[in-house]
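Lab notebook page, bench 4
Experiment: in silico fold of construct C2
Operator: M.H.
Input chain length: 232 residues
Purpose: comparison with the prior construct
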Amino acid sequence: MRSRLQQGRDEQRRRILDAARELFGARSFDDVTMADVAERAGVARATVFNHFPGKHALVEAITEEVLSYWAGMLEHALADEETATPALVRALFAHMGEGIAHYYGFYRGVFREIAKLQVGLEEGSGAARARATAFERLIRLLARGQARGELRADVEAIDLARAFDSLSNGTINQWLFDDTSGALEQRMERAVDIYLGAVALGASEARAAAVVKLPAPPRARPRRVPRTRRSR
């Protein structure tokens, strides 16, 4: 069992991360200071630095949670051995679109920082492990689809996973920062149509029409920040 002291430290850390998520969503990464985070969390500025040496450390901790959540979604998809792989792929795209749109302010505040961090994550860090776990599960899901004859097998599963990541993340990034017109959910639907049109085979493509609802893993999600559209 954890000591009361450790429980108190864990609760402090959780309050700091919650405060950072709220502030990054309401403003932007560059406009938030460590003093702002301390004030919102109700702790001393030194306490924040005891847990996180700087803002990038805060974003890395948030990145670990986001990637762990995504890894949990992929675990649920792998556990579903009845649904066709294209339908699971469609469900994953849909779930991403719904989640990003629902927490628009938060993701617009930190999505680019998360993307930057993923490029240079320190090997062995919690976020790096979460990313590796998620990507390995995505490869396994797509390889299973290939083995079933549901996805084309003339390319490696890792290349299908890379294409999945590039198309999904690119669609999200473009909607968040370049053109917010229209619903992200609709863009993700068009994006997955393009993906499956290139990789799904025969009858399995028709079976992918219905979106399978994947249950959310037991992971705390960022508090919603009302979305404000930019003036054009």
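Observations: Residues 217-232 have pLDDT under 50 and may be disordered. Residues 1-53 form a domain with the Arc Repressor Mutant, subunit A fold (CATH 1.10.10.60).
Next step: discuss at group meeting.
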